[in-house]
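Quick review question:
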């Protein structure tokens, strides 16, 4: 046994972190403030159902932990090989993500979380050195980092339990904070280290909507199940991701002022009929109005901080360390990648957690800043650029050069979503260089063409 580890949060990243460390021989306890989601009633589950796109970085981490586990956990995914753009008239146009059938994979967040919790139960202590258990309805309320001068002094955690007046106090060698964007672990860490921290609410609100399966017995999907559907309208947009039962989870993103101005049945109906007529037919007008009025309106928060750790005692990962807007579909994938990077560093530094945590903060920060900026920029790409001819030309150029030059020319989306070996900050740098080359080439081409035309005119017209 390599030490006792507390993971705070049994969300997607906390569950994966717990599994990874248990496979490495640690004695892991995961604490979660909520009840076990597998016991929540169906209505509650439906309300919180959000689809996620899993891509290569996330899949690589699951495979690193256990390839068979990865297969079981991702058994219910649907591949999405590109975007399907819906215009105002309801016409659809496909934009493939990659040249070689590359896909990102749609999965229900609730299903994924439950699959991971199930894997925790399947963990076989007889076959592995480590162990893992989960404590639900345990809310972290205090952290005492112990004696500063003694690196081996344990961290004492205090948990408040539902329906109990007695707090629980427990000691651990190491604490992993995976408690989401509003992380309390981060707050305690911030009292201990000189942490740079910034948070920013983006002026976009999101509302979940639902496209039911089709009535057609020969095809349960009313639109293509192998695309991420987008209705881009610049300031706002609608997207839809497929579910295996033929339904789609659709999400409206728009500025808060606009979203909150749509209150009455007439306002909602007329806005959606004007902007997304084909989506109204798919969702059903009455269901759409009901969902828009009653479903929670979510805010989008971006968080950056550094360092991510205190000595070898505590580290934060996932949304706790880098909450990002969802437009690149990387929040969870990046959180899973945190787990891989951290696990590899622990192995590299022979499980001296202080060295591994130090290296994590040093190497990971630039990647996290890079993906945060990419995620923010991708709203503009999804909601507006996808319809511009210049964007389509750049995509076509990228595709052509990628086919011609292979790995020497990689489109940005390919580097971020389909490659798991190019750190985010390198992907950003490579793209900046490629963009510069395309601009220079474009400029030179236009200049040469202009010179040729002028020369031709001069000779032809004998000016
Ligand atoms: P969370 O999922 O927030 O989990 C944190 C857990 O900690 C929770 O269970 C919480 O109850 C628990 N907790 C909090 N405080 C305490 C405490 N004091 N004590 C004990 N437990 C505590 N990412 C992708 O990769 N692909 C996508 O397609 C994608 N789409 C998205 C779409 C939307 C609309 C949104 C909002 C996000 C999307 N994301 C996507 C991002 C993704 O959902 C998050 O990055 C991911 O869920 C973060 O996981 P986490 O485990 O770090 O945090």
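Suggested answer, residue by residue:
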């Amino acid at each position: 046994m390599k030490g006792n580890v507390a993971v705070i949060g049994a969300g997607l990243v906390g569950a994966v972190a717990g599994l990874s460390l248990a496979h490495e021989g640690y004695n892991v306890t995961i604490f979660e403030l909520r009840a076990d989601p597998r016991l929540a009633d169906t209505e509650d589950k439906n309300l919180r159902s959000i689809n996620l796109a899993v891509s290569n970085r996330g899949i690589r981490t699951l495979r690193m932990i256990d390839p068979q586990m990865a297969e079981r956990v991702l058994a219910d995914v649907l591949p999405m090989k590109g975007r399907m753009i819906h215009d105002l008239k309801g016409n659809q146009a496909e934009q493939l993500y990659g040249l070689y059938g590359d896909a990102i994979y749609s999965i229900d967040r609730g299903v994924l979380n439950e699959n991971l919790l199930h894997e925790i139960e399947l963990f076989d202590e007889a076959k592995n050195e480590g162990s893992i258990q989960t404590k639900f309805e345990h809310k972290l309320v205090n952290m005492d980092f112990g004696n500063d001068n003694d690196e081996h002094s344990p961290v004492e955690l205090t948990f408040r339990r539902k329906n109990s007046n007695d707090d629980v106090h427990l000691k651990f060698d190491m604490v992993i904070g995976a408690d989401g964007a509003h992380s309390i672990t981060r707050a305690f860490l911030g009292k201990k280290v000189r942490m740079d921290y910034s948070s920013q609410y983006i002026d976009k609100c999101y509302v979940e909507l639902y496209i039911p399966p089709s009535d057609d017995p020969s095809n349960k999907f009313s639109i293509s199940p192998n695309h991420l559907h987008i209705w881009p309208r610049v300031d706002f947009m609608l997207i839809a991701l497929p579910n295996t039962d033929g339904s789609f989870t659709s999400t409206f993103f728009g500025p808060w002022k606009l979203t909150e101005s749509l209150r009455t049945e007439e306002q909602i109906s007329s806005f959606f009929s004007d902007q997304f007529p084909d989506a109204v037919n798919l969702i059903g007008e009455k269901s759409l109005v009901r969902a828009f009025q009653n479903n929670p309106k979510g805010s989008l928060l971006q968080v950056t901080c550094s360092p991510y750790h205190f000595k070898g005692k505590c580290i934060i990962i996932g949304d706790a360390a880098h909450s990002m807007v969802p437009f690149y579909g990387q929040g969870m994938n990046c959180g899973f990648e945190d787990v891989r990077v951290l696990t590899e560093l622990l192995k590299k530094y022979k499980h001296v957690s202080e060295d591994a945590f130090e290296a994590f903060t040093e190497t990971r920060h630039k990647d996290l800043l890079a993906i945060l900026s990419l995620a923010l920029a991708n709203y503009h790409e999804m909601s507006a650029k996808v319809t511009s001819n210049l964007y389509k030309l750049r995509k076509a150029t990228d595709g052509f050069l990628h086919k011609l030059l292979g790995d020497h020319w990689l489109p940005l989306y390919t580097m971020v979503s389909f490659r798991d070996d190019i750190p985010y900050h390198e992907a950003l740098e490579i793209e900046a260089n490629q963009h510069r080359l395309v601009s220079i080439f474009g400029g030179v081409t236009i200049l040469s063409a202009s010179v040729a035309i002028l020369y031709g005119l001069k000779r032809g017209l004998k000016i």
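Why it works: The pocket of flavin-adenine dinucleotide is lined by residues 8-14, 31-34, 50, 52-53, 139-140, 178-180, 184, 206, 251, 298, 318-320, 326, 329-333, 335 (CB under 6 Å). The radius of gyration is 25 Å.
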